């Protein structure tokens, strides 16, 4: 049976690319701790007690940096046209912000430069706007913006 393309709801997922999984990161940190503590113990046995103090300080700072990395490893932006509205969901460090726009009152600004994001504006309420595409390449941002522009009805004014 052929698919009904008119009923499909287009959506885009722009996610952060993480090179390491949480398990791989934990293993790497464990090896770093083992290596650093062995060296610190060797210096402590020679009577240099300040080396282990700096070693623990270093491991604490590395742990803080890795926790920050893990908090943001699953960040993403999800754009979808659902049930007659444009829904943008932005997740950062586990906090979700959801924006709803009426397709008939929405204007999409296609990024022109490599550092520009996709700007989505509510034409009836200037205070309602959102920028997306932080995790996408410039080409992907441009492609998503052009696809959104093609799917949204033209803005006809108030």
Describe the structure.
- The chain is an alpha+beta fold and 158 residues long.
- Helix content is 39%, strand content 25%.
- The strands form 2 sheets. It has a 4-stranded antiparallel β-sheet, with no helix packed on it.
- It is rod-shaped.
Concise structural overview:
The chain has about 160 residues and is α+β, with helices and mostly antiparallel strands.
What keyword list fits this structure?
158 residues, alpha+beta, 4-stranded antiparallel β-sheet, 3-stranded antiparallel β-sheet, 3 helices, 7 strands, rod-shaped
Q: Please state the overall shape, judged from the principal axes of the Cα atoms.
A: rod-shaped
Gyration radius (Cα, Å) is: 24 Å
- Count of discrete alpha- or pi-helical segments spanning 4 or more residues: 3
* Mean pLDDT over the residues: 90
Poorly predicted ranges (pLDDT <50, ≥5 residues)? none
Beginning-to-end CA distance, first to last residue: 42 Å
**Roughly what percent helix?**
25-40%
- What characterizes the major β-sheet? 4 strands, antiparallel
Give the ordered list of helices and strands: EHHEEEEEEH
Strand content: 25-35%
Spatial order of the strands forming the largest sheet: 1-2-3-4
Structural class: alpha+beta
Count every beta strand, where a strand is a DSSP E run of 2 or more residues: 7
